[in-house]
Design goal:
The chain is of the alpha+beta class and 254 residues long. The protein is built from ten helices and four strands; from the N terminus they run βαβαββαααααααα. It is 56% helix and 7% strand. α1 links the parallel β1 and β2. α1 packs parallel to α3, α1 packs across α6 and α4 runs parallel beside α6.
């Protein structure tokens, strides 16, 4: 079993990255000491550790003097953490991010929701809504554009993205577990499913579009509010879209 007293864990990736945040939240949830090197996708630093320059990358050095073992792609990092690092690190109060008894159907459900978040939620939300809004806001700030004209342009730009996103939000709403809307996606505590869904949804909540559409999904909105209060969410807040957009603007009308 891994001896965390002598090993070193390093996470490469910018806090702004939702995938980096998911892995960082997992490390915090299991009380694993690590240090983070902030780097953007395709930066010189990122390209040193991922052949295509993507983030995050996890580097694990088991003992001083050993060449660090690097793992890239978020699903592979999650699996490595589950099998190598977390078994040695888990504090008595820390939740298991997979089925505690390794039930294959429970783990399949966790993996399904995490995959939905990593593919459909991330792509439709970030590229269809959040990034277009941020790009237009940045462009307007540099040119001194009119606020009302900007909002009209943003609404027109992100409307197709919102329409594509809403079926995913509806699906996540239907998959959210817990009696009375008080639980998490799979059971009564956080799993990888929650950790992959939360970072992109937190980005949406930081925009006027989130204020406009999330009330249509009350279970999902309540879950996101609970996640926001968790220690691992608070410890990974700085540098995120939400941290850069406070205070928020008024909700958009869609």
């Amino acid at each position: 079993m891994e001896d965390l007293r002598t090993s070193e864990v390093c996470l490469y990736g910018a806090p702004l990255s939702t995938f980096t945040r998911a892995i960082a939240m997992a490390l915090h949830s299991q009380r694993v000491p690590f240090h983070q090197v902030g780097c953007l996708p395709h930066s010189e630093e990122a390209c040193k550790h991922h052949p295509l320059g993507f983030i995050p990358v996890l580097a694990h050095q088991r003992c001083p003097g050993e060449e660090p073992f690097e793992v890239y792609e978020s699903a592979a990092i999650a699996r490595y953490l589950d099998t190598v690092i977390f078994p040695a690190a888990r504090a008595p109060s820390a939740p298991s991010l997979r089925s505690a008894d390794q039930d294959p159907r429970t783990n399949a459900r966790i993996d399904t929701i995490a995959s939905l978040a990593a593919d459909h939620l991330f792509r439709r939300l970030e590229f269809g809504v959040v990034k277009p809004r941020l790009a237009l806001e940045q462009q307007s700030a540099s040119t001194g554009g009119d606020h009302e004209a900007l909002e009209a342009e943003v609404r027109a730009k992100v409307q197709p993205g919102l329409e594509a996103l809403e079926p995913v939000l509806a699906l996540l709403e239907s998959l959210l577990g817990g009696g009375g809307g008080e639980g998490y996606f799979v059971g009564d505590d956080v799993t990888w499913a929650d950790l992959f869904v939360y970072p992109p949804l937190a980005d949406l909540r930081a925009t006027p579009e989130g204020d406009a559409v999330l009330p249509r999904y009350p279970r999902l909105a309540a879950w996101a509010a609970r996640m926001e209060q968790r220690e691992e969410a608070r410890r990974t807040y700085d540098g995120t879209v939400a941290s850069q957009r406070q205070p928020k603007q008024s909700p958009a009308k869609y």
